[in-house]
Amino acid sequence: MIALLPSPVADVGCDPPIDSPSPSLTCPGELLQRLRAAESGRLGELSVPPLVLRVAMGSVVHLEGARVSSIHVVRSGAFKCVRMLEDGYEQVVSFAERADVLGFDGLCRGVHQTTAVALEDSTVYGLSVHEVNGLLQTSPELARALHSAVSRALVDAARIADMMAAVASETRLARFLVWCSDRALERGESPRRLHLRMGRRDIASLLGVAHETVSRCFSLLARDGVLQVENRDVEILDRAALVANSRGTRRNSDLAIRHRAAAA
Amino acid sequence: MIALLPSPVADVGCDPPIDSPSPSLTCPGELLQRLRAAESGRLGELSVPPLVLRVAMGSVVHLEGARVSSIHVVRSGAFKCVRMLEDGYEQVVSFAERADVLGFDGLCRGVHQTTAVALEDSTVYGLSVHEVNGLLQTSPELARALHSAVSRALVDAARIADMMAAVASETRLARFLVWCSDRALERGESPRRLHLRMGRRDIASLLGVAHETVSRCFSLLARDGVLQVENRDVEILDRAALVANSRGTRRNSDLAIRHRAAAA
DNA sequence: CGGCAATTTGAGTAGCGTCAATTATGGTGG
DNA sequence: CCACCATAATTGACGCTACTCAAATTGCCG
Fold first, then answer.
1. Which terminal Cβ of chain B has fewer Cβ within 10 Å, N or C?
2. What is the pLDDT of residue B75?
3. Is B186 exposed, middle or buried (0-12, 13-18, 19+ CB in 10 A)?
């Protein structure tokens, strides 16, 4: 399932040439950049080069219920994190792409809470929990970078909640696509031409709807000229219309325009 | 809105006497325990006692969109984290109680992604981001404790996704109550007698249903003898039945009993 | 080329959201 | 202490959306 590379191997293919030299600001993929640098010989504060693992499409990086021995950072490719519900339904909890952290949610109980499945052939950095604890002391910058990445996971969780909270399923899909577009932009890719790595079922699971409904919504948005859909390749033709669709419609009485004067 | 305490003030009331001496294992509220110890004089690795803030019910600890100057750890009381959607709907993203971390999701962009509102009179520890970065180097244990707490937030996010993903709203409420029960148990309280700190609207928002539906589901579960409901005080009369209700019902064809043989 | 899975489309029904009205609760001031 | 108001919570009725079951089509990999 998981092929282990010697480590500082000059690994080829698999990742597009998007190693943009973004300045030493703070956020986007600083953690990944540092790991890449270390991999290329510039070790920085790291004592040893990071471990690189190759993960074939459909195989898993870690399994729900397994003891947490290490966490991972996506180096290339894409993953879905799923939870098996009691009735056997596979609930998709998040999607992870380059620079995202996998397995951090297992730290609090020492057991992985999700299963991370590769949606395509991918590579990840493996960091043992022991390494993590040590690294954070020796390298404040690395610590900040890791915190930033974990923070991003929390933000994504909140946005996913927003998606699932929408009343109309068309709204949910629109929000999902806007989210995908935003992420593509952050990643330096086109925010208009999206290549979805996950199937309709996975999208449906994330959004909390039936996969037929996802399919129907794609068709509707395409018929209205908002999208051009060809299987997993989606082009956003009319972003304004898509955003309009992403704006939810909740009843007036549930709105929060209710300002309570706080006592002084 | 926010009253600032001198700091190592012997603060009274507000928090129940649940300072159980759980051994130095790893998980549940280690971060909080360390902060409490520091507050009581036993500074440990901290150079100064932690800052304690008092937050009145209905007021906020941090506001969505504001720059992140510090994060907070709930010392007593309860909070909801909300996001304002474009249409003015207030989406509840999570509930936080004692030992939970607030504001960590803002680190990656430097701007708070949620608004944290106190559901009752509460107190929190305030940690400036500067402090956080420094502390983690000087104290590995504190770092681990923080990571554990953040990890728990990710786990909660996944469970919330599970709740929202359920088809039937009765199932969603059942899952929510099981979750509340689990948390109460972790906290050392009774898993049967729950005192919900949030209103029906907030529950409805978290579950992605109308608040009338929440009310109806409470009534149904009460009529079936599963619960005894008196406003925000809920007693679980038949946990087995509640768990049975929490088991979702998805169509067979969407189940994930589909094992693809991975190439070797 | 054949088979399996993914996707799409259709039809019927159940369940939930919306609107609306009533009751309960808690806090404030007279 | 009680009356009063605002908000929260409950219950009812109705329409519409999305889930379910079902079948056809496409796409993909061996």
1. C
2. 96
3. middle
